[in-house]
Amino acid sequence: MDFCEYPELKRLHGAMSLDYAHRSPSVLKPVLVLSKFPGDASFQTTPMEAYMNITEEDVPFLGVWNEKTDNRLFWRGSTTGGYGGQRDWKESHRMRLHLMINGPKGGDSWWDQQLREVMVPDGESGYKVCPSAEVCKQVSNTIEFGQKVWPEQAAAFKYNLDVDGNGWSSRFHRLLSTGSPVLKFTMFPEWHMHWLTPWYHYIPLKPDYSDLYDIMAFFVGPVDEAGHVDTSKGHDHLAQKIGEAGQRFALDHWSWVDMQAYTFRLLLELQRLHSLDRDMMSYRDPEVQRQT
Description:
- It contains nine helices and six strands; from the N terminus they run E-E-E-H-H-H-E-H-E-E-H-H-H-H-H.
- The protein has helices at residues 93-101, 133-142, 151-154, 172-177, 212-219, 236-252, 256-274, 278-281, 286-291; strands at 32-33, 43-44, 70-74, 157-163, 182-185, 203-204.
- The strands form two sheets. Strands 3-4-5-6 form a four-stranded parallel sheet. It has a two-stranded parallel sheet with strand order 1-2.
- 28% of the residues are buried.
- Mean pLDDT is 78; it is low at 111-128.
- Residues 16-274 form the Glycosyl transferase CAP10 domain.
- This is Glycosyl transferase CAP10 domain-containing protein.
- InterPro entries: CAP10, O-Glucosyltr/Glycosyltrsf_90.
């Protein structure tokens, strides 16, 4: 999502609360980056973090829809992307998600039982980033950290949630590969986003998470006053189609060869831009040249 079109993102995303007063001078220069905001002039490459070079032979081991036994939405993550000197850490996107669903220690969650106990963040007995002892103490007193959950354990859940950390989410490829539909919110467009279709390959999510319950109620079924899920009103078959389409995209269009092709074309274009004779460095279709 573009901050220029949605300025309210400044209060919803931790990356928008960073203090840029001491950043390096804004000098135009070619930069290859793994993650960037929309409108950034840097050249985006294909990150290798958490990439899985899956093949057709791997699919049976990634989880089959009919074998997924838990209808809940699953997410675990560390507290990355959550600290800035200009805003309360509880307003950042990952902290806000946890407090919205699970609530603080000893307190009530904002949405009570509507989301059927979305899993608490995984801090591995702590948290990855902490700018000061005071903030560390606040986080420790507020967040109930869970134990590490391995991908094969998470495969039992039918729905996956993917949100940003400090930058783009490196787990997106793995989540798409599982065959479970991925609910995704991000401010960082990735190299493949022009080929991914919302509501076909994945399920888009609003930055304030206000549509999270409605999405889950549509696919799983609404929750009645007694706290029971009416699965007869859900759309499990549509969720399965989205999960399978996302998995097919990960297999057919997010392979090692696809990333190589993207990178080579990016480097060729970068070389063309650097050339003093761009026309000479530009590609010419041999067939068109013969006709002219």
